[in-house]
Amino acid sequence: MIDQAPGSAASPRAGTPERLAIDTIRTLAMDAVQKANSGHPGTPMALAPVAYTLWRGFLRYDPDTPDWPNRDRYVLSVGHASMLLYAVLHLAGVKEVNADGKRTGKPAVSLEDIKQFRQFGSKTPGHPEYRITTGVETTTGPLGQGCGNSVGMAIAERALASRFNRDGFVLFDHDVYVLCGDGDMMEGVSSEAASLAGHLALSNLCWIYDSNRISIEGSTDLAFTEDVGKRFEGYGWNVVHVGDANDTAALASAFDAFRATDDRPTLIVVQSVIGWGSPKAGSEKAHGEPLGEENVRTTKTVYGWPADSEFLVPEGVAEAFQAAIAARGRPAREAWEATLVRYRNTFPREAAQIDLLREGKLPGGWQAALPSFPTDAIGLASRDSGGKVLNAIAPHVPLLMGGSADLSPSTKTKMTFEGAGSFERGDPTGRNLHFGVREHAMGSIANGMALSYLRPCCSTFLVFADYMRAPIRLAAIMELPVTFVFTHDSIGVGEDGPTHQPVEHLATLRAIPGLNTIRPGDANEVAVAWNVALEQSNVPTALVLSRQAIPTLDRVRYASADGLQRGGYILADCEGGDPEVILIGTGSELPLVVAAHEKLSAEGVRSRVVSLPSWYLFELQDDAYRKHVFPNEVRARLAVEQAGSIGWDRYVGSDGCTITMKTFGASAPLAMLQEHYGFTIENVCAVARGIIGKHS
């Protein structure tokens, strides 16, 4: 078969412009999935009227300027229905913004891109990916993540409006629309996010819930029979019902109801039939696999489409769709830009900050506020020094916002400087967010904030990082500068016992590509770690901090903490030749390793101490530097860390050793745990001597 040119003899039967556009979206989705022999055609077919109605009649968006800051956001949380978004972006004529932030004038999604659906290197991957495809506001794949991101986007709009809007100068007043489904509603993250959105009365947020009653296994009656609308009413949302996804007039009324609601978020419950019009309509087969060539032909016949056509865009369909969107979005964008010009003359400082946020940059000079800490044999818990650093720099980084999952008294991430305040219902001026006990939503909300120009940080105990694994991973995939603060990082939690003593968590965080996991070893390394985290514009950071006090090292006697910027550095070295043993430490074990080094040195043993707080940064250094820190000829190496041993073989080699955790911890005072598990000066020295003896 060959593609049919628009306007050829093989054109659709005459229909309304609306019906032609909707069926074009449907058939593009069917053809792309069939050509790839992979994908989900059913949801795009069912929801084409919803996407069409929203984009054509309501979404404030300029296809020529898709990075306009005050555009409405459209999030496809049902990421498996990616062809719905790709088809809409193509018909809307959205223009590409390249990796350098430049508008190229090329289509964001061309017809050729659609033909390359799910193929290597294409702009139409199986699930929408931020930075890959212009017009994709966030990477959605794991169900519920788009819902959580949208709450962060809505929070960001409120925060930006409170900071920059002035009488007569409205620069931020956009809305956030989300298309979600039964799968999203079953995932816990969406419940957490919806609960917080209702509490905060985010009236700029609209979720469109596709209630098609089908999942991969079959009917949702197998596992999901609750009344979602009533659940959301309980969250404090406005709930609107649309009985048929094909009823565009009812959909328009629902969107009008959302825009008229100013005291709560809105859920529009839309009843649809998955795979509408196909022989497989309403079945799980229409959800998760291609329809098959014969069923595609039959379905096109139902639509009045030429059965043998492929990737057909009838003449005038794209032009009319683009014109309707641009007629609303372009004047709004041009008015916004004119307002910004006037604003710049009246509020030049704030306008300069808007320029920086659009470029992903921070205000100059903030690093001068970074504190340094004096030598202290007792020292500070790194969670405490982390809180001090945060409150020193936050006044100079206005878009830094954050909070914790109900743990700020323990994680010390609360901003306490004068005027910091709390972001609350009816008062979005504060810098502190109270996420409640909602770690999963907290991570995805933080990602949404980062996608909307803010610099978010969020915190919980390291052991609870498992509750937010998906958003941490997605932050790395999207290259978002989110700072995840994890405290209570080891068996140093003591009496709380093994349920709260993370053992495997460092290894799993370090395993995430593109995530900079930093475990600083004293207060000055904490300050440098925060500096590194905020300097990054496209790398998320996990700051791993202690509950217990860590001595602040003498930085006159030992190397500067600035070495952390290279991930690992020689903290203390020997005299009189190459080291006989290299001692490696991170976090609360770094002073222990230093103390062992001093004891060994007094005994005449030549030892080197390497602080290795960030494996990620260290692996970015050139080979010469890494060999300088870890010479090949020094094979006696010992790593000490109150966590699992996985990964340490990279640095200690097959001839080295670790003092690490081989089991879960126990409930006991910290000193007893350290003695029991071998985290003592005597044991470190004994193991080091044993390794040296083996290599003598």
Topology:
Elements: H1 17-36, H2 42-57, E1 73-76, H3 82-92, E2 95-97, E3 103-107, H4 111-115, H5 145-164, E4 176-181, H6 182-186, H7 188-200, E5 205-211, E6 214-215, E7 218-219, H8 228-235, E8 238-242, H9 248-260, E9 266-271, H10 285-288, H11 293-303, H12 317-346, H13 348-359, E10 376-381, H14 382-393, E11 400-404, H15 408-411, E12 432-434, H16 439-450, E13 455-461, H17 469-478, E14 483-487, H18 505-510, E15 516-518, H19 523-535, E16 541-544, E17 549-552, E18 569-572, E19 581-585, H20 590-602, E20 607-611, H21 615-620, H22 623-629, E21 637-644, H23 649-652, E22 657-661, H24 670-677, H25 681-695
Parallel strand pairs: 1-4, 4-5, 5-9, 8-9, 11-12, 11-13, 13-14, 14-16, 15-16, 19-20, 19-21, 21-22
Antiparallel strand pairs: 2-3, 6-7, 10-17, 18-20
Helix pairs in contact: 1-2, 1-3, 1-11, 1-12, 2-3, 2-9, 5-7, 5-16, 7-16, 12-13, 14-19, 16-17, 20-25
Shape: elongated
Largest sheet: 6 strands, parallel
Tally of individual helices = 25
Quickly give the structural class. alpha/beta
| Number of beta-strand segments | 22
